[in-house]
Design goal:
The complex is a heterodimer. Chain A is an alpha/beta fold. Helices cover 38% and strands 13% of the residues of chain A. The chains are: A alpha/beta, B alpha+beta.
Chain lengths: 485, 491
């Protein structure tokens, strides 16, 4: 059994296609391991018995031409799933059962995959440690008491802990790449407009993107190929020629130019991160890539810009949770009183903080100084990348400024928490694709990730670089199954 | 209060005030589906039966622009002789209300789809140009119903997300009559274009009225008040009258006017403060990140331009040139596209030997009276243009007299009967045969010898008696002109 859960997605797909494994066997194995892994608190909603029924049904008449034939998969609880509760990690959606399916999850089911359940995340994807979830924090399978990162913390823990063969997360400022880095897994944030946002609970509409989280680059490429489709239901979805990522995947990156931005060498960055970066540069060279020093001068403004743009959009996106139509409603004396009580009781502290920041920066008299200026800086940051990409094909940086931290360590210090996103946020502001791959361990044996940032729509390029480097790095995640008694 | 009909001035002591009015008209776009969803927009459906997941703002739902509504807005812009902006942006207007499911209205704030334009008003004293500031697209909200349940407010989201055009005028209007003419002209243009049905009862057309007053000949604008959501021309005029006088009274008392939003109470005929400037909402407008800026090409606009029908101003000019109707008649005929259509059809059906003047009289006289009486639109006219044309021709060629025509007209109403058939069936054809009439008159004179002698001796009044006798004996069918001629000769 444990043999099954240790397999990569690609190998499970092959084994099912070759009829060495049935969907039921695979599904049962992941259900069993998930059942034994409650301590990780990776799930908000389990759908195990349905999953096994669906697997049995699949086996009766298996369509083996599909890309994910009978593969069980748990997904972040930010994706609306038809008839399955979708909470976004919030109390305000505690009993919300959508009557519709997000485009991204629909694409996955269309390729034969089976829903295992909904994975924990920071409330409305606002957080970097999965501690803002109304459904409790998630444990990092790497070590007891360690955060898995956020906001896709449940997703990262579930892949890393082998509760699901693969999963999807969403990334607004690093919510796929940072937890991937913290858990020794691979996470891709696609180009803005690559994956449809239809049916994903919105955090910050101009930044949100869904993406795959996997055990390795090959798996990641396969899932990206499945989820990325042009969708008329999302006006920001872009109709471009999408690659067959898994087929086009190659380790040959000879002559590719990889940029090293000096501005990512931030003050107070631990030496082990700098060392990891240097190691990464070395690996890239060994793969035949050419290393070029570049400058992204406006990087320092990315974090403050992000913390204006994202809360501004969030403050408006979350206005619909008002107790009137669906979700949690508190009793009130009148309409205003009902609103106030519903939203005070229904939203957690971090969400309330961001709604207030967002409301403030959009207020008349402050709009120009904050929101408008942030939009201008955002343009400058994008221009920086455009300039850099005249010289290079991809950019290599650390994924995070540190390894995973302890649960509770940064909970009461939002600014220190926000600093976690320093390397990931510029990518979202520029709408670019980026992948985080595990590249080493810190002194405590916790994983560290490297980020490869690509040109818009060039997911294939960074998947190839990641694939080549993964081979050289030969990373082994140190999972002891400490939570299984 | 006012002496010159064309002026609307308010006098207090020795001060004469002028009223400055600007309108923000909300016109519902004629479209089968909503601005950002495919839900139906049909009026009068059961509550909450025309609501999509997008309209009810479910988590993860996204707006997708309805291209037809964009075309309608651009067409309206063309009709207002306005600048079409090739790039416009949808913004979110954020506020909380139970009938606003998203917690924001998608509207256009900084970059509207249509810029400056003009509307020409035909006032009795001549034409007047009114400037259009802008036209933008936005979503309508749902409806809160407060009087159906003692404890709860009920919400109907059928209207939520329906496309509206907000048309903002410059403060160019000066009188309640101009406001009425402006609304009617806007409605007429949109009905010609098929972009808004202009139905005020169903709320397809509503207006916010901005009013300020100033001493006549002053150049500066006074502090304005905005009267929200007035839904009939009559109420607009009443509200303006009340509000302008209220403002003048305040100034005369040495008080200042607060810039505020007011409501018009139709029962009490007064305006009341809704919220002051200080309480005004901070809508936190910002570009909607779910929607890309709306970009249209010259080609797209030109295709729509090619599709624009002849509009009232051009039609009026053509009617005057082609049909030689008076400007006054032309204004009436073109004010409603259906009237213009009816008129042109009558003209066409009359054929070569046409009497347009007579046709206009019949349309604006008898026909309008019947429609008014029966509360019908001209498109529902009980008498078809074809039959009205026949009736006019029967008069013109002397088959029937104007008097008989009225009788026939009454008979035509029931079932759109052919006037020719009525003439034949009822034997109403005018007697114009001089020989027959001479014989008829000879007999009358013979029967009334004494009166004929009296007439000859100078009692000229008796001429009418003989005419009356001739009509009576002929059953009203005798050609009155011939009767006159023959009588003069014979008596």
């Amino acid at each position: 059994m444990s043999d099954i859960t240790n397999q990569s997605l690609t190998s499970l797909v092959n084994n099912i296609k070759n009829k060495k494994l049935s969907s039921e066997e695979v599904t049962q194995a992941f259900v069993d391991r998930s059942e034994k892994s409650k301590e990780l608190n990776a799930y908000i909603t389990e759908d195990f018995s349905n999953a096994i029924n669906k697997a049995k049904k699949f086996d009766q008449n298996p369509n083996l031409d599909l890309k994910l034939p009978g593969i069980p998969m748990a997904v972040k609880d930010l994706f609306c799933t038809e008839n399955i509760r979708t909470t976004a990690g919030s109390k305000i959606l505690k009993n919300f059962i959508p009557t519709y399916e997000s485009t991204v999850t629909q694409n996955i089911w269309n390729e034969g995959a089976i829903l295992l359940g909904k994975l924990n995340c920071d409330e409305f994807a606002m957080g970097s440690s999965n501690e803002t979830s109304f459904y409790g924090n998630v444990q990092n399978p790497i070590d007891n008491g360690l955060v898995p990162g956020g906001s896709s913390g449940g997703s990262a823990a579930a892949v890393s802990g082998r509760l699901t063969p693969i999963t999807i997360g969403t990334d607004t400022g690093g919510s796929i790449r940072q937890p991937a880095s913290f858990t020794g897994t691979v996470g891709l944030k696609p180009t803005y407009g690559s994956c449809s946002r239809y049916g994903i609970v919105a955090f910050a509409s101009s930044l949100d993107q869904a993406g795959p989280m996997a055990q390795n680059v090959e798996d990641c490429a396969l899932l990206q190929e499945v989820i990325s489709t042009y969708d008329k239901k999302d006006s920001t979805s872009i109709d471009f020629k999408r690659n067959d990522h898994s087929k086009e995947l190659t380790k040959n990156i000879k002559g590719k130019k990889i940029g090293i931005p000096k501005e990512y060498r931030v003050e107070g960055m631990p030496k082990e991160i700098e060392d990891l970066w240097q190691k990464g540069i070395q690996y890239a060279k060994e793969c035949g890539a050419e290393i070029i020093d570049i400058s992204l001068p406006n990087t320092t403004y990315a974090l403050p810009t992000y913390y204006i743009v994202a809360p501004a959009e969030a403050s408006s996106n979350l206005a619909r949770y008002d107790g009137v139509k669906y979700g949690f409603r508190a009793k009130g004396e009148n309409l205003i009183d009902m609103y106030e009580k519903t939203r005070s009781e229904g939203f957690g502290a971090e969400v309330q903080r961001r709604i207030m920041i967002g409301t403030y920066v959009l207020s008349s008299g402050y709009y120009d100084a904050y929101y408008l200026k942030a939009q201008k800086v955002r343009k400058l940051i994008k221009n920086d990348f455009d300039e850099a990409y005249k010289k290079v094909d991809a950019i290599l940086t650390p994924s995070t400024p540190s390894s995973a931290f302890k649960i509770g360590e940064k909970k009461d210090d939002p600014v220190s928490m926000y600093l976690n996103d320093i390397f990931t946020v510029p990518v979202n502001l520029a709408g670019l694709p980026a992948i985080s791959i595990p590249a080493g361990h810190d002194a405590s044996g916790y994983p560290l990730g490297l980020q490869i940032i690509g040109k818009a729509f060039k997911e294939q390029e960074i998947l190839n670089v990641a694939y080549a480097m993964e081979d050289k790095i030969n990373f082994k995640n140190k999972i002891t199954d400490w939570w299984i008694k | 209060m006012t002496k010159d009909k064309s002026e609307y001035l308010i006098e207090r002591h020795n001060n004469v005030y002028e009223v400055v009015i600007g309108l923000e008209v909300h016109a519902q776009v004629t479209s089968n589906s909503k601005l950002f969803s495919s839900s139906s927009t049909k009026f009068g459906a059961e509550p909450n039966t025309q609501v999509s997941l997008v309209d009810a703002a479910f988590p993860g739902m996204l707006p997708v622009i309805n291209e037809f509504c964009v075309k309608q807005a651009i067409k309206t812009g063309i009709g207002l002789k306005a600048k079409i902006n090739k790039r416009s942006v949808f913004d979110r207007k954020n506020y909380f209300y139970a009938d606003l499911p998203q917690g924001y209205q998608i509207s256009q704030f900084k970059y509207p789809i249509v810029g400056e334009g003009t509307v020409i008003l035909d006032m009795p004293e001549g034409q007047k140009e009114v400037g259009i500031e802008r036209l933008h697209l936005e979503q309508d909200a749902g409806k809160s119903i407060h009087d159906m349940d003692p404890q709860n407010t009920l919400v109907d989201l059928n209207r939520s997300g329906v496309a509206l055009m907000e048309i903002v005028s410059k403060p160019d209007l000066r009188t309640p009559d101009e406001v009425s003419a402006y609304i009617k002209k806007l409605r007429s243009i949109m009905r010609y274009l098929g972009t808004c049905d202009g139905n005020m009862q169903e709320g397809s057309l509503r207006a916010d009225v901005n009013i300020s007053v100033r001493l006549k000949d002053s150049k500066e604008l006074g502090t304005r008040c905005e009267i929200k959501n007035v839904n009939s021309i009559k109420f607009m005029q009443m509200a303006i009258d009340y509000e302008a006088n209220r403002q003048v009274d305040l100034i005369e008392e040495g008080k200042s006017i607060d810039q505020e939003t007011r409501l018009f109470d139709t029962k009490k005929n007064e305006t009341r403060s809704m919220r002051s400037k200080e309480d005004a909402h901070d809508y936190r407008y910002f570009p909607d990140p779910d929607l890309l800026p709306l970009e249209v090409t010259d080609e797209f606009i030109n295709e729509l331009k090619a599709d624009i029908p002849e509009l009232p101003d051009d039609k009026k000019k053509r009617f005057i040139d082609e049909f030689k109707v008076s400007p006054y008649e032309a204004t009436i005929l073109v004010s409603d596209i259906e009237t213009a259509k009816y008129f042109e059809e009558v003209v066409a059906k009359m054929g070569k030997n046409q009497d347009i003047k007579l046709a206009v009289n019949w349309i604006t006289g008898e026909l309008f009276a019947v429609l008014n009486n029966k509360n019908l639109e001209i498109s529902q006219s009980p008498i078809s243009a074809k039959n009205l044309a026949k009736l006019v021709n029967l008069i013109k060629n002397g088959t029937i007299s104007g008097k008989i025509a009225k009788t026939i007209f009454e008979l035509m109403i029931d079932g759109d009967k052919d006037p020719q058939t009525i003439v034949e069936e009822k034997g109403l054809k005018q007697e114009s045969d001089p020989k027959a009439l001479e014989a008829l008159i000879d007999k009358i004179i013979d029967d009334n010898r004494e009166k004929a002698i009296e007439y000859k001796n100078g009692k000229e009044k008796l001429f009418g008696f003989f005419v009356g006798q001739a009509m009576k004996v002929s059953g009203g069918k005798a050609n009155p002109q011939l009767i006159n001629e023959i009588l003069k000769k014979k008596l």
